[in-house]
């Protein structure tokens, strides 16, 4: 049979009270032998997996002082790393050819001619020219405005269309200004609304005047020689309707061809203009 190891046990001894008065009992124990379990400290140290609240505040304050360019790192990923193709082929059918505006093609051709030319280049441009004097430059502009309550101020043309300004007398707050125009001598007509732009205060006995702006889109194929665009301004306020049709003749613009000379040193400006 295996040998048994004897362990010393604690002994309790009581002492008889002395004559001097009662004394409390005392517990005496002998030292622990090798059979007693090893004692471990009860207070354990907290794991440092997460920083404390003050430490987190310090780290957040330190990150705020670091520039954004240092905190964020750019990452470059290629298409093949994501399982995508590096190239993509698109086949266009005949009906899917991109439509390039005429004014863009003309400017590109001008730029190519400038590149291969060693001297000044002369070319022609088609644009709409007003058949009337700008109303704001006329001496009777103010009187016409007071008489008609609405009057065209100025109109300019470009490759995209016509833009201009209209002045109306501020009869009431609610008002509507529009422009009615045609490309085929009023066989068909179109109308666009003008937008409020600014107000002109009273001066020289005239009331307050509102300025409206408008834009008439002109298709590029209409920019042909001797093509005519006609329009008139309409002003609706307080249930009344006022017109400015250039005293019954309507405002008209005719397409004409103008020769222009372009110096070679201006070729770079055409690149930026396109």
Automatic annotation (TrEMBL):
- Output the GO biological process annotations, alphabetical, semicolon-separated: regulation of glycogen biosynthetic process
Which Pfam family, any one, appears in the UniProt record? CBM_21
What is one cellular component GO term in this UniProt entry?
protein phosphatase type 1 complex
Gene Ontology molecular functions: glycogen binding; protein phosphatase 1 binding
Comp. bias regions, Polar residues: 25-35
Report the protein name in the record: PPR3D phosphatase
Q: Where do the CBM21 domain residues begin and end? A: 142-254
Region spans: Disordered: 1-38
